């Protein structure tokens, strides 16, 4: 309590896309969403039960990026979650609030990776930080493993390298940009 952290979730294994992966909350814009920010706040409430009234938006982490499948543009917002009555109302996702900076800057957790084949960043191992030891072996068998290749292929889809739970791909890229902005990464 009182220590800044990064809020990440492990997506449910029954979801159609990115199941079992570590991500920030978020998703598609609905017709009822007036803006990308409103969509992000709605999705955060739906996924984690955190109401918009408890989130102070600080800005965007970086520029929008097209997802690997090319069917969505991701607009990454960053905010501060204030404790309140709606915080974590739902038990819909495994949620981890990682303290900064030690958990996400430890050299033992960092693995050099390339985003979209040409932008270096750190993928972060989080297997031991996630409640219940997710993902379980059955889930890992059902998901594609990350390839050694750093080209625009399936290397950014599925669980992390060697079936380990990692913050990587688009989530890893945006976390890297945030950590650089906070001067926790060089």
TrEMBL record:
It holds the Pfam family NUDIX. GO terms for molecular function: coenzyme A diphosphatase activity; metal ion binding. InterPro entries: CoAse, NUDIX_hydrolase-like_dom_sf, NUDIX_hydrolase_dom. Residues 1-128 form the Nudix hydrolase domain. Keywords: Hydrolase, Magnesium, Manganese, Metal-binding. Its cofactor is Mg(2+); Mn(2+). This is Nudix hydrolase. It comes from Lentinula edodes. The lineage of its organism: Eukaryota, Fungi, Dikarya, Basidiomycota, Agaricomycotina.
